[in-house]
Amino acid sequence: MAPIDLGKLGVWTTFRRIEEARAGEAAALAEQLGFGTFWLGSSPRLPSLRALLDATERIVVATSIVNIWTYDPEQLAAEYAELARDYRDRLLVGIGVGHPEATSDYTRPFSAMRAFLDGVDGAQTSIPRDRRCLAALAPKMLALSAERSLGSIPYFTPVEHTSRARAQLGSDPLLAPEVAFVLDTDSERARATAREYAKLYLGARNYTNNLLTLGFSEEDISGGGSDRLIDAVMPHGTADEIAAAVRAHLAAGADHVAVQALGEPGVPRQGWTALAGALLG
User: Fold this and answer.
1) Which tens digit of pLDDT belongs to each residue from 183-206?
2) DSSP, residue by residue, 51-67
């Protein structure tokens, strides 16, 4: 089986943001602009990826992430096998534990993830190791991502995390962070947009604990996030300024960066087009 080719850059979005009825349109636009991967967030069910794959010819479609608390591992493996019959080289399954504030069943995430992967591997038709990746922030989960999958897809992280993760993972495992951005040169307005998006994550222990290990303080996290934190995690400004932040992740060791446009309703045509021009043109 050929290695999956994610390209250096992808787009990250959700059906809630773009509307599921416009999924094919969004995927076709991302492919036309030259992005290598279309990452679908908010715990999608795997069969919903078919509309994205059917509408495109080359782009990889990946989940970011399927949630282990809401999926049976054998069912996930079976759904992967169904899609892989047609799209094996364009399908990547991102798997994660989410965060405790959103899942009442959340207990012992590391052990739960290992058990879930055991279930996938024990299924009648497994998901190959190089066709799955893990949402990983802390060292133990990063190590598991390298051991049991293609690698890690961190979310809501500054470039310092990319550098630290690469140092731990070594050169071979995938490291593909998400970078949300606001295409807006009005800093006050752009930060307000970023803070609205960041509310969920600044109230989630796994994300805030990770930020604390990277040199941010409780004061940085409180009150909607300090300017320093907001700017480090969610760059804003011109397309060239945002592109520089994306390149910093690549220089720090990322193999691939998934960019998420904030503040643009529906399919973010303007944001994706601007970033493609600055990074892929």
Assistant:
1) 999 999 999 999 999 999 999 999
2) HHHHT-SS-EEEEE-EE
Contact indicator for 47, 73 with CB cutoff of 8 Å: no
Q: Would you state the pLDDT for residue 222?
A: 97
Output DSSP code: residue 215.
T
Upstream peptide bond of 59 is cis (omega within 30 degrees of 0): no
Q: How far apart are CA 15 and CA 210, in angstroms?
A: 27
The tens digit of pLDDT for each residue in 212-253 reads 999 999 999 999 999 999 999 999 999 999 999 999 999 999
Residue 266 to residue 58: CA distance in whole angstroms: 23
Task: Among 2.60.40.2550, 3.40.1190.10, 2.30.30.90, 3.20.20.30, name the CATH number for the domain at 9-182+235-279.
Answer: 3.20.20.30
